[in-house]
Amino acid sequence: MEQLLEILEGLHPEVDFELADDLIDAKIFDSFDIVTLVAEINAEFDVAIPAEELIPENFNSAEAIWELIQRLDEE
């Protein structure tokens, strides 16, 4: 989770990712942020995020992103 928080803070250092739970809903992340995030997750965690997983629920919070990474890593 620490590595994920570092990636997220690199995208938006002004956001408290440990508390934020509306990253998509509040339009904190735009499509470019998501593309960048997916690429960095792939590189850092060696996890490919398929297109069908690119839904707001999976990216609204650091916890949701972390759960997605863990779930995909187990598959």
Give the class-level CATH name: Mainly Alpha
- pLDDT averaged over residues: 96
The CATH topology is Non-ribosomal Peptide Synthetase Peptidyl Carrier Protein, Chain A
Q: Strand percentage, roughly?
A: under 5%
Overall 3D form: globular
Compressed to H and E, one letter per element, the order equals HHH
**Cα separation of the termini:** 19 Å
What is the total domain count?
Answer: 1
Structural class of the secondary structure composition? mainly alpha
Going by CATH, what is the homologous superfamily?
Answer: ACP-like
CATH architecture label name: Orthogonal Bundle
- Counted by DSSP, the helix tally is 3
Q: How much helix is in the residues?
A: 40-55%
The radius of gyration is 11 Å
The biggest beta sheet reads: none
Report the uncertain regions: none
Question: What's the total number of strands?
Answer: 0
Description of the molecule:
This protein has 75 residues and is mostly helical. The protein has a single domain, classed as ACP-like (Non-ribosomal Peptide Synthetase Peptidyl Carrier Protein, Chain A, Orthogonal Bundle), CATH 1.10.1200.10. Helix content is 51%, strand content 0%. It is built from 3 helices and no strands. It is globular, with a radius of gyration of 11 Å.
